[in-house]
Specification:
There is one protein chain. The protein is mainly alpha-helical. It contains 20 helices and two strands.
């Protein structure tokens, strides 16, 4: 990236900081003004800058409005990106346009055209950026500013939480009748989605550290900060994803340098340190079980139903799908998908909490099978390329999180999907390896 582009990203981060401050201390007028200023920054910069700016702005999605809870102006930023893609891009991929139209046709039966329009704009990011020069050549820059923005949004979200300004979240841990802990959700608004978001960015930074030595320590510090915030979400999914990310990372590093004496020594020391850490950690937990954070996690992981009712939720949507033959080919009506239901007579739910079931609800069974087959083939090809198999890390985490999370109609999902797909692109690794050399 040229210096001018780096300055644009720094200006955007500054605007995002001001936007967070405005939502805390000021009002709708300043919020909208800052969102409009960012709109003009999008308008008068290049397509290459726009794609980086889209990712950088994504963690602040819920703040691009006068009042939190109303429609985000982020959709306008996507429209600018699409306009520049079609009118300023040197080559237009006809297959992408056909895919985009096909997916919209599959979702017409959802019968909620406002939701369809918003969804179409969000999914346009991974579709129109996939395998494009303006994306894969800038992956290090995108991950850098995406991560910085996410961390910035987390600090703002933490301030909001501490001052009873936290947005949307209704997720609590009931330690006792008088002791209720609100689970951290940043500016995402949902603690588990926040943890998923963070884990994918952690995985992306691990991929960069695998290839790029420059600023490696900085990335580890950023990973540590994100991990700290994930701990405050009390998300079992988030903790498992982060452990999985580091486990796979060390395995892949070991496979890459397995014959090196330094690597063997490092792995031996790592094993010793890991055993000591686990032993000391368990001892600390047992001796400090009254600590709020430790107590919360003990409560979460000692639950009789670690899946927190998701089996019953899955059964509900499987029954809905089985009673509608059109779900073989197209989306079920959006109102039916969102219709409130209960699995225990107490909690009211309206999401399926499983990306695989949700994909069937959103596109139909046959299109879903085709999508995931394509995804697994892409991952297999990446694994077969020994020098770039680390690229499967973000996608594995995304697919693993899908066992307990939906996502197609959440604002952040297609952004992290685009990053995960980019990491499966062979051209991305040609860029990363050239930076290292």
């Amino acid at each position: 990236m040229i210096i001018k582009s780096q300055k644009i990203m720094k200006i955007e981060l500054f605007i995002l900081l001001l936007l967070g401050i405005s939502h805390i201390f000021f009002g709708p007028t300043i919020n909208l003004l800052l969102s409009i200023i960012l709109f003009f920054l999008f308008l008068f910069t290049s397509l290459e800058n726009n794609i980086v700016m889209l990712f950088t702005a994504l963690p602040f999605f819920n703040l691009f409005t006068g009042k939190i809870g109303t429609t985000s102006l982020y959709y306008l930023y996507i429209i600018i990106f699409i306009f520049k893609y079609f009118f300023r891009s040197k080559t237009i991929n006809g297959k992408k346009i056909l895919l985009f139209i096909l997916l919209i046709l599959l979702r017409l039966s959802s019968a909620d055209y406002v939701a369809l329009a918003k969804w179409a704009l969000l999914i346009s990011i991974p579709i129109f950026s996939y395998k494009e020069n303006f994306l894969y050549k800038q992956i290090p820059t995108i991950v850098k500013y995406f991560t910085l923005s996410f961390i910035l949004s987390s600090f703002i979200g933490y301030y909001m939480l501490q001052n009873n300004l936290s947005i949307y979240t209704k997720s609590y841990i009931y330690l006792s009748e008088n002791h209720i802990v609100t689970r951290f959700a940043g500016l995402v608004g949902d603690s588990v989605f926040y943890a998923q978001f963070a884990s994918i960015l952690i995985a992306a930074n691990l991929v960069l550290n695998y290839y790029i030595n420059e600023f490696k320590f900085n990335r580890y510090i950023q990973i540590l900060i994100m991990m700290t915030f994930v701990i405050l979400t009390y998300s079992k999914t988030g903790i498992i994803l982060i452990v999985l990310a580091f486990f796979l990372y060390f395995i892949l590093v070991s496979l890459k340098n397995g014959k090196s004496k330094k690597t063997i020594l490092f792995l031996f020391l790592l094993l010793v340190v890991s055993i000591l850490t686990v032993t000391m950690g368990l001892d600390f937990i047992l001796k400090n079980s009254s600590n709020t954070i430790i107590n919360n996690y003990l409560l979460r992981f000692s639950s009789a139903d670690l899946w927190t009712g998701r089996n019953a939720i899955t059964n509900h949507y499987v029954e809905l799908l089985s009673n509608r033959w059109t779900s073989l080919f197209v989306a079920m009506p959006y109102k039916e998908y969102l219709a409130p239901f209960t699995t225990n007579g107490i909690s009211i739910l309206n999401k399926c909490h499983n990306i695989y079931i949700e994909t069937i609800c959103a596109f139909g069974m046959i299109p879903t099978v085709c999508m995931f087959l394509w995804m697994f083939v892409k991952m297999l090809k990446t694994i077969m390329r020994k020098d770039s198999r680390i690229g499967i890390l973000p996608m594995i985490l995304l697919l693993a999180s899908g066992l307990s999370l939906h996502g197609h109609f959440e604002f952040h999902y297609y952004g992290i999907l685009a990053i995960a797909l980019a990491m499966l692109n062979e051209k991305t690794f040609e860029i990363l390896k050239s930076i290292k050399s």
